[in-house]
From TrEMBL:
Gene3D superfamilies per the UniProt record, alphabetical: STAS domain
Domain named STAS: residues: 1-100
Name of the protein this chain belongs to: Anti-sigma factor antagonist
Signal peptide (from-to): none
Listed CDD domains: STAS_anti-anti-sigma_factors
Pfam family, one: STAS_2
Species assigned in the record: Nocardioides euryhalodurans
Length: 100
């Protein structure tokens, strides 16, 4: 998995699975520390995703408001959306439907 940053945006590319969760968690934590309010996680180039990976995003989205931040998921493809719905983690994340 490749992780790129573009201002407050974290761009994930490749397979987002249990093997990459610690790297994504660290990168997301850095974006939250450096941004003023909003962090966007761009999943446009994610080829596959699993439940542990989505839990990282759901936890960050749920915890971010405690520190005055906001996390939005952008570019969620059909597989990501399906996994979010099946796992019911969709309740804990905000998906940018306009950019999907």
């Amino acid at each position: 998995m490749d992780i790129l940053t573009d201002g407050p945006t974290l761009v994930l590319c490749g397979d987002f699975d249990a093997r990459s969760t610690s790297r994504v968690r660290s990168a997301l934590h850095e974006r939250l520390e450096e941004s003023e309010h909003e962090v966007v996680v761009d999943l446009t180039h994610v080829e596959s995703v699993d439940l542990p990976a989505l839990r990282v995003l759901a936890y960050a989205s749920h915890a971010a408001p405690r520190t005055g931040h906001h996390v939005t998921l952008r570019g969620c493809g059909p597989q990501v959306l399906r996994m979010l719905h099946l796992s019911r983690l969709i309740r804990f994340v905000e998906v940018d439907r306009d950019a999907a």
